[in-house]
Specification:
homodimer, 205 residues, mainly alpha, 74% helix
């Protein structure tokens, strides 16, 4: 008790830091062993906090999983699409953002595993579904915004419905990510298919 | 021991039946609780066989999971694409087979859950990867065969690479299945996106 109270007081003083440390530890744990292997005690220990502090921040195991998904969504490359950098066409920005979802960096891979794991777990844990739907809708909206930018700047000349096309592209990339993470397709070939999909859905008719 | 030996003798006499009963029980268990929640003892009990008989047929837990994936693959609607029914064009056959992956029947849903679960588990269980790759490759080959049939019968007039297009279509359907099973998209809307994807990748240029 004394230890837990001390730990809690210290962590509360550290404020936001402890929340971030817990989320980082949760993401690492999910990337290594999956959502189904996630144990609150392990995450707390790895984050250097007490389990009660973890519950204080996230209320429940499923609250922690939902927050991990939210974090993965914020860190996903496509999330940056909404703020288009100057000098990039809409077409190039959409292609680059979708290709980046299959980047070789360990952070991107871990992020993709977290995303895939929470989606797969939502089949059996209905309390996760609203959150999965929300982050997927956000992903689609940011890709649709990139397509609209491309239609406006002339880099996408084919007359396409931005929302339908965004839906097709994110589902394609999601399916390829699953295959890549499962070891059923090489990353480079999956990226080649993303390029082909973007070209065939957005490129010159 | 006596009971186990009796059960084994009886089941061996029943031969193939017990193997099928175990696979059916495994598929039901995976569809209900996922691969990660799969317990050999539960499957054996539900199939009415002894755990030793289950090990006799499948060697290990991962052997059972691999056999469940194989079964899901054989029962997947796209698997029937290879034998094109008379009167169906290649285009219609490809579209129907891909739409059927999102059919509302409980068997199709359970089958899709098994497929998705084994793929998701392969991220953490490398011994599953070769099997996932093999069934995905088989799926792609059967869709590519349907596309070739459509190019031959004139129902697909766009000049497409059958293998690349099949790869794009199965990844799209896989991504949509994941979203559907996770409750992040309605089944009917997902089917509408399958139709749109087929039309935009195979339809008139």
């Amino acid at each position: 008790m004394a230890k837990s109270a001390t730990a809690r007081a210290r962590a509360e003083a550290e404020g936001r830091d402890s929340r971030d440390a817990i989320l980082e530890a949760a993401a690492r744990a999910i990337a290594a062993r999956g959502v189904r292997g996630l144990r609150i005690e392990d995450v707390a220990r790895e984050a250097g906090v007490s389990p009660p502090l973890l519950y204080y921040h996230f209320e429940s195991r499923s609250g922690l999983v939902r927050a991990a998904l939210e974090r993965a969504s914020e860190r996903a490359p496509s999330a940056r699409l909404a703020r288009l950098e100057p000098g990039h066409t809409g077409y190039a920005a959409v292609e680059a953002a979708l290709l980046a979802e299959l980047d070789e960096s360990p952070e991107i891979r871990d992020n993709a595993v977290v995303w895939g794991e929470v989606s797969a777990s939502a089949v059996f844990e209905p309390e996760l579904r609203d959150d999965v739907r929300r982050v997927v809708d956000g992903w689609r909206a940011s890709v649709a915004a990139g397509i609209r930018a491309g239609l406006a700047d002339g880099s996408i000349r084919r007359r396409v419905d931005p929302d339908e096309t965004a839906d097709l592209l994110i589902s394609l990339v999601d399916g390829l990510c699953t295959r890549w993470l499962a070891g059923a397709i090489e990353r480079e070939r999956a990226q080649g298919l993303v390029r082909a999909g973007v070209r065939r859905l957005l490129g010159p008719a």
